[in-house]
């Protein structure tokens, strides 16, 4: 009987634990990407004028990609349990897509400061979905 209670507790806490791990990966990746260019070393992969990836940036980007992809999988797998209307899901998807598009466009074009708008839009969508994913 104790094993059943323990097992159900582990199953219930699994999404919370996984969301916490993905959040740590994402925060770690962002912090590594915030390292000033003077401390990163040489650019290994030039992306556009003024933008390029160094070895430090690649580690940060890898952590961010791993954490972000894992978090996206968690959200999609738990989507039926999030109790969001189709209109709300469409709006959040549109907001997240717009944010991601602006982030990518700011790297490859002259939209330099649009990254802040894109990060804000993506952040709002994440702040709505992640707590619901962790608690359900």
TrEMBL record:
Q: Which key words tag this protein in UniProt?
A: Membrane, Transmembrane, Transmembrane helix
- Looking at the record's lineage, which domain of life comes first? Bacteria
Residue stretches spanning the membrane: 20-38, 58-76, 88-106, 112-130
What is the protein's given name? Major facilitator superfamily (MFS) profile domain-containing protein
